[in-house]
Design goal:
The complex is a heterodimer of chains A (409) and B (235).
Chain A: H1 15-28, E1 32-37, H2 44-58, E2 62-67, H3 72-85, H4 96-109, E3 117-121, E4 138-142, H5 152-162, E5 167-170, E6 183-185, H6 202-211, E7 220-224, H7 233-244, E8 250-256, H8 262-275, E9 281-286, H9 291-300, E10 303-306, H10 315-322, E11 327-330, H11 335-338, E12 346-348, H12 351-363, H13 365-382, H14 385-399, E13 406-408
Parallel strand pairs in A: 1-2, 1-3, 3-4, 4-5, 5-6, 7-8, 7-10, 8-9, 10-11, 11-12
Helix pairs in contact in A: 1-14, 3-4, 6-9, 7-8, 7-12
Chain B: E1 7-23, H1 26-35, H2 38-51, H3 62-69, H4 74-81, H5 91-108, E2 121-137, H6 140-149, H7 152-165, H8 172-181, H9 184-191, H10 200-215, H11 219-234
Antiparallel strand pairs in B: 1-2
Helix pairs in contact in B: 1-5, 2-5, 3-4, 6-10, 8-9
Classes of the chains: A alpha/beta (409), B alpha+beta (235).
């Protein structure tokens, strides 16, 4: 992975915002911070941490990243916790809580927490808070998942730990639960210099599109998402078919490989059935680490769709907006924080609504251009990694000024 | 002309805190509005304007946005969007005004619309961090130069935040111009700008052009320049 310096971002964000980052960094220079999560590679949390940590170190906050260890049984339990916290019904068995507790204790014995601040990511290492007792360290729990409708038994167990922290961070207000500790609101973000988001030359884009036999001379409507019913790929095909009765276009549905996911394979089959023999529907089952391909497909698109039925924050929407693409997306979850209807994109509620908006944008390129332009500016201001850096610098300052609404620096 | 004291540019950053309070319909909304902190009112009144600084939006504040988009009450949304902080002197007055508008609507409403789950109004609050920048100005020319250099958050701070959170009756720029240059006309012109029809970039440009227009032709500078040229010629 290419390693970037903070100055590389100075050309991307407003210069004044870059100055502000430096100004805030002066206030916490020399402070120490530890981030703890449960995996070093794979998954969105590890991806953003691997990019965030060198940058915050460069800003002067001495930051370490540690990953907890765990048995297969432990990760089986935390996977069940994850599903239960997302609202699925999970069978709770006797040993579950004990396995979680023991594994956290085992990690705790092998770790030290002498830093000024510790940020624990997600439920797996939440039990490390038991080390807080004697230290002056400020502890924060960073929750990346949707806690709006959790299975009560699991949440009540976890809440026992979470309530002991000095603060918590959630990605959207509706992911949060009522807690006796402060809850900060920090959006996820993308890295504009990553393989998935960096600028590409037209020839790089062409090369990838040729590989998939997609005609660049005709409009392309794309949805990037894994083959999952909650992403409604069949609904996207239906919307495309309705739109195509009036306006010529091609459809690209691209997502991760479904080979290791029985349900994914089933959905992929449903998608192929719905697509039938239409040569203008391109169903691409991408291999892992296909970031460059995703980048090129998004950049080549005339419109990007995200017609999900349920969505967390929806970083694929952020990626498309950053590429200046007009986005048509369902009015659900974190999408509504990013797509402001008729301003930074178009929000829809049905297959028919999506179909109409495809027709509308394909026939009104000036509107599509304006939505894409505003969408990109919104991402520049709110959804880039530099904003997460700013939020963290502010958070560290706020933790040293509890209960203050105005902090004079 | 030099000021007695320089204009020191400050900037403000914000961290958002979730209060855990939410409203699914307008009756609930009014109840919660009566109990939230002033920093909640401040956050929801201005964060959309502050964050969408690249283009003026349809709704200037979160309350109007929610009422219009999630409840579909367009007339009430327009009333709330039309709220201007210039008409009020403090956040508590602003809060009363919002409650009054919504209660008046509720008194005449035939139905109470409910937002879908996760589309409720989630009340947040703002933690403000105020810091001094390295920029300051001793005269109006220097002021215009510095205003171009400081971030839009600094403009936001002096034009909106100082007025509402620190209970000042005008914006900081007008205050300084009136006090240090005795130029009430220019100060009033800046104060009279309608910020809600501009982006922050445009607002900054408007302020600079008002200052430049007030300066007229720079006779003193021209004479100084001319005499320096004449001296060179005489030598």
């Amino acid at each position: 992975m290419a390693q970037f310096k903070i100055k590389d971002y100075a050309k991307i964000i407003r210069p004044q915002n870059f100055d502000e980052l430096q100004l805030l960094a002066e206030r916490v220079r020399g402070k120490t911070l530890k981030m703890v999560n449960s995996t070093a590679v794979g998954g969105g949390v590890a991806e953003i941490l691997s990019r965030f940590i060198p940058l915050i170190n460069e800003l002067g906050v001495i930051t370490k990243w540690e990953v907890i260890k765990g048995s297969g049984a432990f990760f089986g339990v935390t996977k069940a916790f994850h599903n239960a916290l997302h609202g699925s019904k999970v069978d709770v068995y006797g040993q579950m809580f004990e396995i979680f507790r023991e594994n956290n204790e085992e990690n705790r014995r092998n770790m030290t927490f002498d830093e000024d601040f510790v940020v624990i990511h997600d439920p797996q290492p939440a039990g490390l808070i038991e080390s807080k007792k004697k230290s002056k360290t400020k502890w924060v729990w960073r929750c990346h998942i949707d806690l709006s409708n959790p299975q009560p038994e699991i949440w009540n167990f976890l809440k026992g730990y979470v309530s002991k922290y000095d603060g918590s961070i959630f990605s959207t207000p509706w992911f949060a639960k009522e807690l006796p500790i402060p809850q900060y609101f920090i959006f996820p973000a993308i890295d504009p210099l990553s393989e998935k988001n960096k600028d590409l030359t037209p020839s790089e884009v062409d090369k990838i599109l040729r590989k998939y036999n997609i005609d660049r001379s005709r409009p392309i409507v794309t949805q990037i998402s894994r083959f999952d019913r909650l992403k409604d790929p069949v609904g996207v095909i239906k919307a495309y078919k309705l739109a195509k009765k009036h306006t010529d276009c091609q459809l690209v549905l691209a997502g991760g490989s479904a080979s290791d996911d029985p349900e994914g394979a089933e959905v992929l089959e449903e998608v192929k059935n719905e697509a039938g023999n239409d040569p203008d529907i391109h169903i691409l089952s991408l291999p892992p680490f296909a970031d460059l391909e995703i980048n090129a497909l998004q950049r080549a698109s005339t419109i990007v769709m995200q017609k999900s039925l349920r969505e967390g924050f929806g970083l694929t929407v952020t990626e498309a907006l950053w590429k200046g693409k007009p986005v048509i997306a369902s009015a659900i979850g974190g999408i509504t924080l990013q797509v402001i209807h008729n301003f930074t994109g178009l929000l829809v509620h049905s297959v028919e609504g999506a179909a109409y908006q495809i027709r509308y944008l394909l026939n009104n390129p000036q509107v599509a251009e304006r939505l894409g332009r505003y969408g990109k500016e919104q991402v520049r201001e709110k959804f880039l990694i530099t904003r997460i850096l700013r939020n963290y610098l502010l958070l560290l300052i706020a933790l040293d000024h509890p209960n203050e609404n105005i902090i004079q620096l | 002309m030099k000021a007695k004291v320089p204009f020191v540019f400050y900037t403000s950053s914000q961290l958002v805190q979730i209060t855990g309070k939410k409203a699914a319909h307008l009756k609930e909304f009014v109840e919660v509005m009566k109990e939230v902190e002033d920093s909640t009112i401040f956050y929801h009144i201005h964060h959309a304007y502050r964050e969408h600084q690249f283009a003026p939006g349809a709704y200037s504040n979160d309350f109007a946005h929610w009422v219009g988009e999630e409840l579909g009450e367009s007339a009430l949304a327009e009333k709330l969007a039309n709220l201007s902080i210039k008409d009020v002197t403090s956040l508590s007055v602003l809060r009363s005004r919002i409650i009054e508008i919504v209660e008046e609507f509720l008194n005449n409403a035939t139905e109470i619309r409910r937002a879908a789950p996760q589309h409720e109004f989630y009340f947040c609050k703002n933690i403000g961090f105020i810091s001094k920048t390295k920029y300051q100005a001793w005269d109006l020319g220097e002021f215009c130069e510095m205003l171009k250099k400081v971030g839009l958050r600094s403009l936001f701070f002096h034009f909106f935040e100082a007025r509402l959170r620190l209970n000042r009756r005008t914006n900081d720029f007008s205050d300084w111009i009136k006090a240090d240059f005795n130029d009430a006309v220019l100060a009033n012109k800046i104060e009279a700008l309608d910020p809600y029809v501009y982006t922050l970039d445009e607002l900054r440009d408007k302020i600079i052009s008002l200052i430049k227009a007030s300066q007229g032709f720079p006779w003193k500078k021209a004479v100084k320049w001319l005499s320096s040229k004449l001296k060179i010629t005489q030598k």
